[in-house]
Design goal:
Region (Disordered): 429-453
CATH architecture: Alpha-Beta Barrel
CATH topology: TIM Barrel
Family: Belongs to the polysaccharide deacetylase family.
Largest sheet: 3 strands, parallel
Structural class: alpha/beta
Distance between the termini: 22 Å
Number of strands: 16
Number of domains: 1
Helix content: 25-40%
Biased composition (Low complexity): 430-453
Oligomer: single chain
Subcellular location: Cell membrane; Secreted, Cell wall
Number of helices: 12
Transmembrane segments: 463-484
Strand content: 5-15%
Length: 485
């Protein structure tokens, strides 16, 4: 990809790019070891990204410790791309251990008080310089639950009127380590069986519509992705990890001011079902808080890391004004996860990721709804494969895809993505919109119109729009860079 170096205001990044790669490798090796020691579970984990019968790389949809198909590190391309970026790197250069490219900071920095004119009633941008690192939890660790902030958020949940199911947390190790939980359909545990509540956002309602999403940033190469999206007049949903938002607040402001949708992806990227209720509240609350302090607005959507969510975690998120959003899954062997995250760690190669993408496209043209794909803006490899290959191929597809953020593909205005600008009338959180549940054959059928307590197992669920619930005062954090998927 072609890079342009630009300056930007950013809080100190305390880990170098090289250090980040090392951090990732250590985490991924631990995950692989856990997966290798696991046995088959009572329910099939939703880990695969390609169509049934195709070769699949283990994707980031799988929580650490869940079983996943063997990586296809020697895969070759099985199809011809419709288009590529004229400045695309060779696939051999988008690989683990690739030469480090120059990083790209925010192309535009915004003064405190700048107005987001595209959002009626939106607050002015806060001052990044006002962020005090010491006021926020340690990066990339689940925050303590005894802080005044967490106590306030616990009261918010208690006052919501939403009943939190009495479900025990799972233990680390995924489906194999939790056979009873995996077999308990009342949990509606996505990780083991792909269960979705009818209120979960798992696809766009309209056929050939792609809800474009990127997880885990902002990070070192997000700026280059933003530049490409701007050149192509594309908007996306960015699921932001709180610990990354503190590291790159200027990039987060650029995402927001470029009219991309900003959503919550927790503070430290844990397996959410393994946490206590208070820890779930802390993870969601601190992520909301940093986003609010950098942007002035509070997201109404969130995505569980690894897709690891059950009815307990869903209910807590709903009580905190957050709409659960995952990605499309039409069978145990066909989840719309490109597997891009695994390139940097060497457990898959770029050719396999593109084969996964090709399978996603084939399935997307067969189902009766639109779709949502899991991708990441965390590493240079994930950004390179997106802007050099996946997005150009998608833009050249015939018939054309309609590519837009999740909130837009649901037929909602961007204002509904934030508490402060949501009209709180047409967009009640947890209320199901018209949608379909798909089968393993990739044919959609049926309607989902019940509340989040109902579930669809192994199929595409319904669609819902989040609403503005009472906002909570949030703060910000600034600090170091440690990376998660």
């Amino acid at each position: 990809m072609k890079l342009a170096l630009v300056s930007a205001v950013a809080l100190p990044a305390l880990v170098s790019a090289h250090g980040l790669r090392d951090l990732h490798h250590a985490r991924q090796q631990a995950d692989q070891a856990a997966a290798a020691s696991g046995s088959s579970s009572a329910a099939a984990p939703a880990t695969s990204s390609a169509a049934a019968g195709s070769s699949v790389a283990p994707g980031s949809s799988a929580a650490p410790g869940t079983t996943a198909p063997a990586a296809a590190t020697g895969a070759t391309l099985t199809f011809t791309l419709a288009s590529t970026n004229p400045t695309a790197l060779p696939l051999s250069d988008i690989a683990s251990g690739a030469s480090t490219q120059p990083t790209v900071a925010a192309s535009t920095t915004y003064a405190a008080g700048s107005t987001p004119t595209f959002l009626s009633g939106a607050p002015a941008l806060p001052a990044i310089s006002s962020i005090v690192v010491a006021n926020y939890p340690t990066l990339d660790k689940t925050p303590p639950t005894d802080s005044a902030e967490v106590q306030q958020w616990k009261q918010e949940v208690a006052n919501s009127g939403i009943t939190i199911p009495d479900i025990d947390p799972t233990v680390a190790g995924g489906c194999a380590a939790n056979p009873q939980a995996a077999a308990d359909s009342s949990r509606c545990w996505w990780t083991c069986g792909g269960c979705t509540a009818n209120a979960d956002v798992v696809a766009c309602p309209d056929k050939m519509t792609w809800g474009l999403t990127y997880d885990d940033g902002p990070a070192l190469y997000t700026g280059d992705l933003l530049s490409y999206l701007d050149q192509q007049d594309l908007k996306a949903t960015f699921f932001v990890v709180g610990s990354r938002a503190i590291s790159y607040p200027a990039l987060l402001q650029e995402e927001y001011m470029a009219q991309h949708q900003i959503a919550v992806h927790t503070w430290s990227h844990p397996e959410m079902t393994t946490l206590t209720n208070d820890q779930v509240i802390a993870e969601l609350g601190w992520s909301r808080k940093i986003i609010k302090d950098v942007l002035g607005v509070t997201p109404t959507y969130w995505r569980p890391p690894y897709g690891d969510v059950d009815n307990r975690v869903r209910a807590i998120a709903t009580a905190m004004g957050l709409q659960t959003s995952i990605w499309t899954r039409i069978s145990a062997s066909a989840t719309f996860d490109t597997g891009d995250f695994n390139i940097a760690g060497g457990t898959t190669n770029s050719e396999q990721v593109l084969n996964n993408w090709h399978s996603i496209v084939n399935n997307a043209t067969q189902i009766n709804t639109g779709f949502i794909v899991l991708e990441h803006d965390l590493f240079q490899q994930t950004v390179d494969i997106a802007m050099d290959y996946i997005l150009p191929d998608a833009l050249a597809h015939q018939p054309p895809f309609k590519i837009e953020p999740i909130v837009s593909c649901l037929g909602k205005p961007l204002s509904d993505a934030y508490i402060e600008t949501n009209d709180n009338k047409s967009n009640p959180i947890g209320a199901s919109a018209s949608g379909s549940s798909g089968s393993g054959s990739a044919q959609a059928s049926g309607s989902s119109n019940s509340t989040g307590g109902s579930a669809n197992n192994g199929a595409m669920g319904g669609f819902a729009a989040p609403s503005a619930l009472a906002g909570v005062a949030f703060g910000v954090i600034a600090g170091a860079l440690g990376l998660f998927l």
